[in-house]
User: Fold this.
Amino acid sequence: MNTDEVLSIFKSAGAVLEGHFILTSGLHSPVFLQKARVFMHPDKTETLCRALAERVRDAVGEPLDYCVGPAIGGLIPAYETARHLGAPAIWVEREDGKFRLRRFEVEKGARVVIIEDIVTTGLSIRETVDCMRALGAEVVAAACLIDRSAGKADIGVPLIALAEYEVPAYPADALPPELAALPAVKPGSRSL
Assistant:
């Protein structure tokens, strides 16, 4: 599956939005990828995550002990990708602002891959990597459906992206006039 095919699925679900958006990273962008509109369709989600699982398998081999999703955005793709990899899906969630593995245990040395929905700066993946390493897991890679950074995000482990789709993103104090003229919407989940 290539970038055009991935974006075609997002567009068919009405998930490529245009306007003025404050991303989970805090950056502002004229495009928001509302993956929830894709994830509400099991067939579209299955197609994307099966392709992502193939990429993960090709890159890191098997066996994998766990696929780990950062909550909230990584829950569905981690579960569905894990299903295709034949590995358990677990997740980290924020507790006092930090990712914790609250509902599961992992064995020291467990081979894990972090599965995320969309990467812009890679912060959620870096925090998940730190959490899993602190528990003694071996983070062999991270994977995402779409890498908005087009390979520029430094996440501390190899990043496997199903698609790279670089969309402009700006700090709040450096908005182009046409973006600044639009009301900003914050559709992400980090503050939840």
Notes: The chain has a mean pLDDT of 93. Residues 74 and 116 are 4 Å apart (CA to CA). Helices lie at 3-12, 36-39, 42-60, 75-85, 123-134, 177-180.
